[in-house]
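RagB/SusD family nutrient uptake outer membrane protein: structure tokens wanted.
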Amino acid sequence: MKHRILTVFAGLSVLAFTNCTDLEEEILDESLTGSEGLVEPINGSMAAAYGILPQTFRHTRYFGLQEIPSDEAILPPRTGLGGTQWADNDTYTTAHRHLMSSNNSLVTGAWSYLTTALFRTVAAIDVITPMAEDGDAEAVQALAEMRALRAYENMLFLDSWGLAFGKETTSETSEILRGEEAVAYIESEFLTALENINNDRGPGRMTEDAIYGYLAKLYLNAAVYRDPYGTPNFSDSDMQKVVDYTDNIINNGGYSLSSEYFDLFNDENHDNSELIFALDLRGVLNNDHNRWAYWSMSGSLFPRPGEFYLSMDGTDGPAMTSDFYQTWVNAYGDTDPADADARFYKKNAEVPAELEDISGLTPYKNDTLGKVSDKDHYFVAGSDFEIDRGIIRGTMWAPRKTEFRSGSFMTGTDANGNSGFKIFPLAEARENGSEEEDITYYVDHTLDISLDGSAGYASGYRFAKWQFSKTSDDGNNYSSVDLVLLRLADVYLMRAEAKLRMGDNAGALQDVNTVRTSRDARPDQTPAAWSSIDLESLYRELGFEFYWEMHRRQDQIRFGKYEDSWTSKSDSDPNHRLFPIPQEAIDGASNVEGYLLQNPGY
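Answer:
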């Protein structure tokens, strides 16, 4: 059903019905090119539109909204001497159990920032349109970018809340679109943008290939978007469009799959040839934090030694569910996934063999305290030390500080006379009541984790997929790691799924094997090619390739898995495929009867 309302904009109010108050922006510089671009109307308006997206995708907003309700991640209140952390009024427990309310902060935060992002994009279109109509070539290209960005943002709304906002200018009426109307509107926006866009400015900007990729994603999920509560009907016509759009990108030849999987999530990833669309966080554009790196990691972890990284740590946030880990075990049987798949784990901390065994050792805090049995159980590394990456099990190795919060990193010399930072097995410092108390045990990440109240700080395997940025000059603040939103592997695997749903098993198998065998920078961990394929194995593969990238919830819904039971979650209501619309947004629209209605099931 379509509704119309005249909306009024003031400052950062986005749509008349949002009425949200948590937009505490921390923007350093939203210029696309540096400070000189701020006074130029085209660049300035586009920078404002792009610049808010890193904050929109924060862990406590859209990123968390996609990850925590999936079978991939779980965030329990963590018990310790200081009480509980991450209890947060049951924000994360109810999200994981699919029992969230319309006031859940993941929902309200994601909605607030996404509506603000959409407003800024529409406002940019207002600024740029007159210049484009006058024939300014730069404005024509910029207008196409902004229309594509508006379509992308509306697709995020459609995916999460089942609606899109049809709005041409800030002064005209806004239409709430659902189902087929929303799909058709988003497609028309993308197709219109294609008429005047090129591939010159990626991956931090919308390009022709980004549009092709999102058109493919739109039609891969179109059956769900048309009927979000029913059983999807994946028609051959939709799947053929997915194949056609992905063919455009693959046949273009402008991208290549990254040989080293974790290079995709490093500081230098902006220039990685696999990226198609990402949030550009380099240099003056790095207006957000290392959130995707630090959210899951141990709060006792200080991952990067050096004077600039004294406050760079983890938060003991989400962990991997045992169910998601089991999919890796099921895939590789008796072989440890770390030995079979380069995407699962990368060893960076090269611990000498004689130091690997830490059984019987007790960690220590500094030389003035009594328990120093592991005092010499370290190796020395330079300032370029990197923690292990991927899925973290057991005890990591990392730098240690003389005092947990206020100290400096320990340095020393090894038996060969090499000096540098001491790298120890990670000791649990966070649960101590004060800086004066000794550390008595190591952080040992265990598989078992649940929402039953027993989760300690170390419970659960952790996601170390994104690099702690080397350009941070304030601990966890600021990052040059682009947040990847669309990459070539996604294009190949969308095409594989579409082919498989149309019965082309051979074509699907070839695409999947292309991606798997491309991760060959560490040959002994290169995933082996498959000999056969079905929907179940493809679904599992999507989890391996895209974990911790906001993919899993969408994939689960499309493959009919979202109503399944997994760690601490048993809800099976299909109404919960979509999130509740924030109550504050509904209240803000209450003067227009029937304009913004709550989604079923809330």
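The chain has a mean pLDDT of 89. The first strand starts at residue 3 and ends at 6.

Cheers.
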